[in-house]
Amino acid sequence: MRRLCSLVALLLAGCGSTVDHPSAVKVMNSALGGTIAADGQVVSTDWTPTGGDVDVTLTNPVGSGSAHVVGTLSKGSGAVSETVDVTFTQWHDPVANLTLDGALHEAGNFATVAPLAGDVVLDGALTASGSVDAKVDVDLKGSYSPSGFSVAGDVGGQSLSASFSISAP
Asked: pLDDT digit of tens for each residue in the chain (169 aa)?
């Protein structure tokens, strides 16, 4: 019975731990910043008109560490679909004093890339160190439009949502 209770407790705990709301926001912001930088590297690579396999490594442009991006990118009629895995190695966000290790799976479908319009799903597990020390599960859904970006989901056991507006002067 004792072993059964231990096994049930382990299964309920999952891979990641629950963090407080401010810590979850820090991890989400750092992860989004990292995946946006990685996506920028994928988009700037010279692909064939129909897309292809992705295998690029990005050095963190604002801190230290790297992100390795592997997957596929498909293009057609102005639309772009991507399915990539972004693996962070000592990806340091100096603003949040946060370092990320781990992998996130990203799947996105975009009707246009300029302006960016479409949806993306981001999930996986990260180990955060620095201002947050925890293993954190990530499950987010985002939506891009010419006027901004919105994201909602679960990070480290916290339900989060945010939106960012873009306006032209």
From this structure: 444 333 333 333 445 679 999 999 999 999 998 888 887 777 666 556 677 888 999 999 998 999 999 999 888 887 888 899 999 999 999 999 999 999 999 999 988 877 778 999 999 999 999 999 999 999 999 998 889 889 999 999 999 999 989 876 6
Q: How many residues does the chain have?
A: 169
| Residue carrying the six token digits 């962070």 | 88
4 CA to centre of own chain:
35
Q: Where are the beta strands (DSSP E) in the chain?
A: 51-59, 66-76, 79-93, 98-113, 116-130, 134-145, 148-155, 158-165
CA gap 144, 21 in Å, rounded: 24
- The whole model's pTM is what? 0.83
Indicate the SS3 state at residue 12. helix
Is residue 96 within 8 Å of residue 26, measured between CB atoms? yes
Residue pointed to by tokens 């981001």 = 122
Separation between Cα atoms, residue 80 and residue 159, nearest integer Å: 29
